[in-house]
Design a protein that fits this description.
The complex is a heterodimer of chains A (about 120) and B (about 700). With about 120 residues, chain A is mainly alpha-helical. Chain A contains 5 helices and 2 strands; from the N terminus they run H-H-H-E-E-H-H. Chain A has a two-stranded antiparallel sheet with strand order 1-2. The longest helix of chain A has 10 residues. In chain B, the strands form 6 sheets. A 6-stranded mixed sheet of chain B has the order 3-2-1-10-11-20, sandwiched between helices. In chain B, strands 12, 13, 14, 15, 18 and 19 form a 6-stranded mixed sheet that branches. Chain B has a two-stranded antiparallel sheet with strand order 4-6. The chains are: A mainly alpha (about 120), B alpha+beta (about 700). Chains A and B meet through helix 1, helix 3 and helix 5 of A and strand 6, helix 1, helix 2, strand 15 and helix 4 of B. Chain A: Keywords: Nucleus, Transcription, Transcription regulation. Chain A: Its main location: nucleus. Chain A: It is found in: Nucleus. Chain A: This is Vps72/YL1 C-terminal domain-containing protein.
């Protein structure tokens, strides 16, 4: 180990005396374990929310509902109010200048702009 | 304190001196992990709640664990290509307990734990943390670290209680908390959070940072590598603010350039101007010119010697041939044939022509002009020597040869005649045009112009068609749009031909025009190239004419293309390495109020207050009381302009002239830990904890109803 690394104590020691079970014993080397952590969404599904009493608060039912206001539309490029939408790229835009810009955009950028508001085409 | 510096916390030394009954207090926030002792004012250790597991380069790729922020300079010793920065959190819930374990390892190690942890633990969590997360967390604490007892409490509640103790807010009130991954609104009645009435929107500080980073890297694609998540976080903390009124702030940036410029901030990327090339001096130029001149002279000399050598050689060959001729002239018939055979010639005629050729090439080499007429005259006779000879004197082979020569002669003559005729026609037309011009210069001029524009239009159109069938629609994708019009037509014909079978009676070939289809189908359809050539030459003629008569005339083709050298690069300046943060300053934090901007279909934080009040199902008088004690907390609430904007937002959901009071938390970042530390220091803290035995007895069910009492 390089001396700077040792001096700054930046690495976690592989064994720690205060632990009852060491990490290496719990997660043996060479076993793929990246997959075992499911995402929160799946965990919540697996926990089966229907078994919980509906009148009691739980993680899912305290979520905010959608806004009562109609969503405002903003230009994907400039952020100004967007009265128009491009039917081809599906991007919203504020004025003709931006429209020209949109039509020059490569598809990758179009998708990245759409992804910002979760509207990109997802290929599965 | 959290992520801005790569500060590595030192190891605490007094762990063993702390009595075993003193609880350890952990504020397990999605962005920052804080750990310390109950009853103290400040957490002992705080670090960013992240883990990296890179490979160490020099020790055979051993995987190592790094918790918290690091000095980027030290990361060169590690291979980070197959890993990224990981967090144990998804939104505000811990779900990745392997990473959580590394973080706890590091936290207890920094706190100074040596042989055992051995203290009760109070850990914060989000509102209504799912049971599986609590179960896994307590399992980890009990089984891996051997802690005696554990309590979980809501960070926002601790923050509210702490501010209540400071006198900032009342027993009944609301907490608006803007955190790293989420925002919460929690009502409090008699100092206890009403979880049934709280609400959560899944938008927080991390979303603002992501949004800012994406927007900037889309705006400056060349600097995308410099715009890291950490840098975006830093820029967010430094420059972002909440617009008092989003729409009018947008109008300022749209219409008032001056004020917008005033509100724009810049981030200058490190940039060193490239060394400027000195223009070459006079001396240098003269030296270069001389060098060039010398090189040219050398080449010219070389060419001259070569030419004289060639001339000498040719002259020698010529004299040889002449000698041979003389020999032949002197010699008798049988002797002559043997001489001819030995020299490799068939007849005297042949030798003569060889001599002529030699003479010509000598002339050419010497650079003398040999008039075309003369050459034609000379060659006429010996090009077609048999034409004028009567048939009877010739052998059958010679007859054949004669026929060939006649054919050649007539075709060349015909070609010459046609050329002459064309020249005559041209001259005639020129003359007619001249006449028309003198007759009516105005009309003639008009006609010329009209014809010019016609032709140039035509040629332009054809060019366009060739280059791209429809180049007005850029960004086109898909195969069809990449073909030009002619190719498209060809494809269409091919497909129709391919699928034409069995459609009633086959009438193909009844009309002669049917066969034209094959011409169109053939790959090289250059049938209009001749026409094109003609048009172009005509255009050139008219252009020159127009230039003659009209001094103001500009050739469109030349004028339209000033052809700036496409490879000429504008020298880069510091400005090109400057990142402007204008509208983004308030556009990014606006997602807290309008989550729809990043595609989250939930209410914003101002509207959440009304939702929470509605869920409370209490009298208006209670709601009125709650609204006079609204605490704003959480690291993401630190943006300037947050309180006034929230106030005007909430006011829209409240009755006219209803009283409203918003309070900024004493320290929106640390209050949760401080509140928890104060709570854990209470003598009744023990009543709120559970032990390994409790957990073994009830399992996960223990957590379905688990809620601590915050007022002890």
């Amino acid at each position: 180990m390089e001396s700077e690394i040792q001096r700054t104590e930046m690495l976690l020691a592989p064994t720690l005396a205060f632990k009852k079970v060491q990490t290496a014993d719990k997660y043996p080397k060479g076993q793929s374990r990246g997959r075992q952590w499911k995402h929160l969404r799946h965990l919540l599904q697996a926990a089966d929310g229907s078994s919980l009493p509906p009148d009691r608060p739980n993680y899912l039912n305290i979520q905010s509902p959608p806004s009562i206001y109609p969503p405002k539309r903003y230009c994907d490029i400039t952020g100004f109010e967007a009265p128009y939408a491009d039917p081809r790229t599906k991007l919203r835009y504020s004025d003709p200048e931006v429209f020209k810009q949109i039509r020059m955009l490569p598809d990758e950028y179009v998708q990245r702009y759409l992804a910002l508001r979760n509207a990109a085409v997802v290929l599965r | 304190m959290s992520s801005s510096s790569a500060h590595r916390p030192p190891r605490e030394t007094d762990f063993d001196r702390i009595p075993g009954s003193t609880p350890i207090v952990i504020d397990n926030g999605a962005s920052t992990f804080r750990i310390g002792w109950a009853g103290e004012k400040e957490p002992r250790v705080a670090f960013r709640n992240i883990v990296q597991r890179p490979r160490h380069r020099s020790s055979a790729g051993e995987t190592v664990t790094v918790v918290g922020d690091t000095d980027p300079g030290l990361m060169k010793f590690f291979d980070c290509t197959r890993t990224s920065i990981r967090s144990p959190f998804d939104d505000d819930v811990v779900y990745q307990f392997e990473y959580m374990e590394y973080i706890l390892d590091y936290a207890f190690d920094r706190l100074g734990a040596t042989s055992e942890v051995g203290h009760p633990i109070l850990m914060t969590e989000c509102e209504c943390n799912p049971s599986f997360s609590r179960a896994r967390m307590s399992e980890l604490l009990f089984e891996t670290y051997g802690v005696p007892s554990v309590a979980f409490g809501i960070d926002d509640a601790f923050s509210y209680k702490y501010n209540q103790k400071l006198g900032n807010c009342g027993e009944d009130g609301l907490a608006i908390s803007c955190e790293f991954g989420t925002c919460h609104v929690v009502p409090f009645l008699k100092g206890q959070p009403v979880l049934g009435a709280c609400c959560r929107t899944n938008v927080g500080g991390s979303h603002i940072t992501d949004f800012l980073r994406q927007l900037l890297s889309l705006k400056y694609p060349y600097h995308a590598a410099s715009i890291t998540w950490e840098k975006a976080e830093e820029l967010k903390k430094e420059h972002c603010y909440i617009a008092p009124d989003y729409m009018s702030e947008l109008q300022i940036f749209k219409n008032n350039k001056e004020e917008a410029e005033k509100k724009t901030r810049y981030w200058q990327l490190p940039w060193v101007p490239p060394p400027v090339d000195e223009p070459p001096s006079e001396e240098e130029l003269a030296r270069k010119a001389a060098q060039k001149e010398r090189a040219g002279q050398r080449l010219r000399d070389f060419a001259a010697t070569k030419r004289s050598q060639k001339i000498q050689l040719l002259e020698k060959e010529l004299s040889d041939l002449e000698e041979l001729m003389e020999q032949l002239d002197e010699a008798e018939e049988p002797e002559a044939t043997s001489i001819l055979a030995s020299a490799g010639y068939l007849s005297r005629q042949e030798i003569k022509s060889a001599i002529l050729k030699k003479i010509q090439s000598i002339r050419k080499a010497k650079g003398e002009s040999n008039g075309n007429e003369e050459k034609a005259d000379v060659s006429e006779a010996d090009k077609y020597p048999l034409v004028s000879v009567p048939d009877e004197t010739l052998t059958p082979e010679q007859l054949k040869e004669k026929k060939k020569q006649i054919l050649l002669k007539t075709t060349t003559e015909g070609r010459l005649r046609a050329k002459q005729r064309r020249a005559e026609e041209e001259a005639l037309r020129e003359k007619q045009e001249e006449e028309r011009r003198t007759e009516n210069p105005e009309l003639y001029f008009e006609e010329l112009r009209a014809r010019y524009s016609d032709l140039s239009e035509k040629i332009d159109q054809r060019k366009r068609q060739k280059v791209n069938g429809n180049n007005n629609s850029s960004g086109a994708v898909g195969r069809g749009e990449r073909l030009n019009a002619a190719q498209k037509e060809r494809m269409r014909l091919l497909t129709t031909a391919a699928f034409d079978r069995g459609k009633g009676e086959d009438t193909f070939g009844m009309r002669d025009e049917d066969w034209l289809v094959y011409k169109k189908m053939s790959k090289d359809t250059d049938q209009d190239d001749d026409e094109n050539d003609y048009d172009e030459s005509e255009l050139a003629r008219i252009t020159s004419k127009l230039q003659e008569v009209d001094p103001t005339f500009v050739n469109k083709h030349e004028a339209a293309e000033p052809t700036p050298d496409p490879h000429k690069v504008r020298p880069l300046t510091a400005e090109d390495f400057r990142i402007a943060i204008g509208i983004e300053r308030f556009r990014c934090p606006e997602v807290l109020f309008q989550p729809g901007m990043i595609g989250v279909d939930q209410a914003g934080i101002d509207e959440m207050v009304s939702i929470s009040l509605r869920r409370l199902m209490e009298d208006e008088s209670v709601k009125e009381r709650l609204c006079q004690s609204i605490l704003v907390t959480g690291g993401t609430s630190l943006f300037p302009g947050m309180i006034p904007r929230l106030e005007s937002g909430i006011r829209q959901f409240r009755p006219y002239l209803a009283r409203l009071k918003l309070i900024k938390a004493a320290d929106p970042i640390l209050d949760a830990w401080r509140g928890a530390a104060a709570f854990a220091a209470s003598s009744k803290f023990g009543t709120q904890t559970f032990t390994l035995e409790d957990y073994r007895e009830h399992g996960e069910n223990l957590f379905h109803r688990y809620n601590i009492v915050y007022t002890l």
